[in-house]
Fold this sequence. Notes:
By secondary structure, this protein is of the alpha+beta class. It has a single domain (64-275), classed as Fumarylacetoacetase-like, C-terminal domain (Fumarylacetoacetate hydrolase, domain 2, Alpha-Beta Complex), CATH 3.90.850.10. The protein is 13% helix and 28% strand. It has a nine-stranded mixed sheet. Strands 14-13-16-17 form a four-stranded antiparallel sheet, with no helix packed on it. The longest helix is centred in the last third of the chain and has 11 residues, at 219-229. The chain is globular and about 55 Å long. The mean pLDDT is 96.
Amino acid sequence: MKLLRVGNLGAEKPAILDNGIIRDLSSVIKDIDRTTIGDDLINTIKKLDISKLPQLNNNLRIGASVSNPSNFLGIGLNFLDHALEQNLELPKEPIIFSKATSSICGPNDDLIIPKNSEKTDWEVEIAFVIGKKGKNISLAEAESYIFGYCLVCDFSEREWQKKRSGQWVKGKSSETFGPVGPYIVTKDEIKDVYNLNMSLDVNGKRMQTGNTSKMIHKMNFLTSYASEFMTLLPGDIITTGTPPGVGDSMKPPKYLKKGEVVTLSIDQLGSQKHSVV
């Protein structure tokens, strides 16, 4: 199933996509968040005749797929071809960084270039959403903690990320730097999550082309690994890295400017479109 949130910022309704029709789930759950995400939600929806749920206007704004997650984590240098384009050694263990949850926005919201930024860059990524609380999760059990998958653009300010001392979170956390969606696809709907094509364009020109088969550390392992260091909670988003083609690796480097348009997509996970302002 494809779960989404639609409506004006701060007033989104939970919804489900039914053969292209957006149907209102607000009679079933108040929101798609840490209190509702999990197997119980899937089981409840499976018992419904969703064709009888109220239809919502398909022109409504689509919000972030998860409301107010406790954690928004990223994995650095986790695609083989991206690490090679940057001439960097593969990390011996996954690089985990945080993105501020205040960076989260909808899949078609404007990208706001932050004040004093000169190196805002793009990264198309597949993310997964945690479905239940876990700590020290075994690799064998890890898949049962994954609720579903979604599209994320990990917008990044490279000067702040690399040159401003400290953790990557500085360059990853500006407002609108974390668009999530358009929807969460529950894991039962995707037969092979490691064979999905990924792409990103700027002003209609292809910048990134990749496939999830190039992911170094797979999602079950990342779930288990991250839970060694923190308690994972329902609704937590972990975005897993990007294929080659980021602006910072181009010669000369290219960064986003006001007036440009970024579009991105992943097979079965939908697409995003952002006007740069």
